[in-house]
Amino acid sequence: MTDTPDFSWSRRRFLGGAAGIAALGSLATACGSGSRPPSSDGAGASPLTSASPSGASTGGVDAELIARRYPGLKPFAPPPAPPAVKPITVSAVHPPVFSRVPITEKVVFVTIDDGVEKDPAFVQMVKDFQVPLTLSLADTLIKDDYRYFAQLHETGFVSIQNHTLTHPLDMPRLSPARQLEEIAGQQEKLRREYGTTPYLFRPPGGNYDSATVTAAREAGLKGMMLWKESMEIHDMQYQTASHRLRPGDIILCHFRGPAQLKGETMVQMMANLYRHIQAQGFTVANITDYV
Ligand SMILES: [Zn+2]
User: Does a structural domain hold residue 14?
Assistant: First the structure.
């Protein structure tokens, strides 16, 4: 019950930076604007770990194919070996709230939320890059096609985490019982659909209060994952004035398509993100190796 992360920091902190996303109004049900921080649940033993240690691009990423399909991109460098001791310790008693991982290597973490867009080409992209991704899914946005996310899960490069049943953008306005229902209900659905038990929770819009942390804990979640940057169509919104990635930053993206991206596709948006990451000399690692 304590160990609470600073709520003053969390609430609304990023709404000011939401301007860039205002155009995506149609995403009202999605992560809202200004994306913010929190979690991805956990599959401590996610397929990532088994598929490729630390989700690395160690094996078989075809540089020529990458360059041809995704102009300007190359395979990501393999991430460093996972730390012997995870920098962030999750807890079933006091779930920590975090928005980055305290490390010094030039590594960032990519998280994708909601589930509105279901672009088959993105499944191929995940296989092409072999980059570890964390998906925080909301039932109401994925239930028209659970199979799509199963395909992503089966690539072995994604971990699936909890993002509520109905994606309420202001969890603190719900009663504690309703908050618990949103989180515990989604745990059940994700277990049923994907055979995985999330351990990280990301509150919709990054909005949470102490009752949310309590509900997450009661639902069996062990950490709340926020974020440091959010990906728009071409650019990222940074929380820092330097507008640079920092080691350990958690980046938020959404499953979005032409309807939300002014005609651009999910794959184009992700390629834009990957260009930003590569241009700043970073690679991508698996958050479940660090949290
Ligand atoms: Zn969301």
Answer: no
Determine how many CB atoms are found less than 10 A away from the CB of residue 75: 20
Mean pLDDT by 10 residues, the chain (291 residues): 38 34 36 41 39 48 97 97 96 97 97 98 98 98 98 98 97 98 98 98 97 98 97 90 94 97 97 97 98 98
pLDDT score recorded for residue 291: 98
Strands 107-114, 250-254: pairing kind: parallel
* Residue 161 CA to ligand 1 centre (angstroms): 12
- Ligand 1 centroid–CA 163 distance in Å is 7
Q: Is residue 117 part of a domain?
A: yes
User: Cα(114) to centroid of ligand 1, in Å?
Assistant: 5
CATH number of the domain residue 180 falls in: 3.20.20.370
Q: Domain span at residue 220?
A: 35-289
Specify the pLDDT at position 60: 85
pTM of the full structure: 0.82
Q: Is residue 7 part of a domain?
A: no
What single string gives the DSSP state of each residue in 191-228?
HHHHS----EE--GGG---HHHHHHHHHTT--EEE--S
Does 3 reside within a domain? no
Number of domains in the chain: 1
